[in-house]
Amino acid sequence: MVSIRILVLIGAVLGVIPIALGIVALVTTKWISSPSGLTSSIIICSEESLCLQAPEATITKGIEIAGVGAIVVGVILSVILGMWTENVLLLLLPQIFLIAGPILILIGFLLYAKYLFGMIMQTSVDLGYSFILMIAACIVGFITAIYFAFVAGSSRSRNENYSDTDSYDSRNSKSVSVVYSQRF
Questions:
Q1: Any transmembrane segments, and where (predicted)?
Q2: C-beta atoms surrounding 85 within 10 Å
Q3: Which regions of 117-158 does DSSP assign to beta strands (E)?
Q4: pLDDT band at residue 49 using 50, 70 and 90 as cut-offs
Q5: CATH code of the domain in which 118 resides
């Protein structure tokens, strides 16, 4: 059978993918591009007509960064808790972050598109590769959340399946129950 540590390591590697995609998408300038070659992103704007106003820009930046940050926290918690705890409730805690992160990313870039398209309806714009990277980060983030939920669930069933019971204490002939867990 596969060790829980190997499953957690695979999940950590899988978790790095949406983090990397999210960071690259946040810092690149190809969220939106116009036919004339002008580009815009959530952080950097090359043309004033493609830039969001201050409140809208702050909202979308904050939501996107919070989404990527939630995935980072979820992956780190999943690795730490997956390696060193057997408490099923604690193993499910990172799922909150791993599910909230992609949801925040999705909401953030949809708000970005809504605000930007609403601002420049008369200009033709195309979605750039950074926009597509953020969609990919969202999808892989959900896959990561599902994977870690599976790992958390399998560690619980593993603990229940691999227990032995000794029921005799030779010192005073009382029946005692000692459970040996073979988690790793």
A1: 6-27, 65-84, 96-117, 129-150
A2: 14
A3: 126-127
A4: low
A5: 1.20.140.150
